[in-house]
């Protein structure tokens, strides 16, 4: 009777494993939204816990069959053969569910990481847009133009590492058919805004550089002219002091 019960337990265990495999491993999942992906991750975590909890039952079956084999070798030998099959299938099921759970957790982590990098780069784009707008109505002063140019250049020196991560993470998920529509839409919007603002910022940078160069050249010309007028003023003053007749002066002094 004990052998019959153990045989029944082995059959039930095998049936449960078959159902678990069908439910957790053979279903075709499509992750088209973050909610679907998150739910799949949680479901696989529960599946992993559920399968690992059966380890106690498997151990009890193993111990009982070993005990029976010592008392009734003939019955125990047949059950031991069936037990080995169940143990092998159970270990395989555990490994596969652990593997799928780990993969889904990695995918979810990849999605969260992508969102974090997008947030960082979006904040940088907002800052860049603000700096570009600040260069729109500058006072016609050299210091103001110079400060605006340095401020814009400091933002433009932003490293490209984050954008590289965004591209690689996004492509990894899209290649796996995971959240591909959502990610493609996000990346398209981000890249379009990045290209637009970058071109605008570089164009404004060149314009400010040219404006600054013109202002510096004008300042230099005014300085030279001022110095020349100062020299002329001193020369004319000396002429007047010495009471020199205008017709006796050089042509330029007249």
From TrEMBL:
Protein name: UTRO protein
Pfam families given in the database record: Spectrin (PF00435)
Top-rank lineage group of the source organism: Eukaryota
Transmembrane segments: none
Keyword set, alphabetical order: Coiled coil
Positions in coiled-coil regions: 3-64
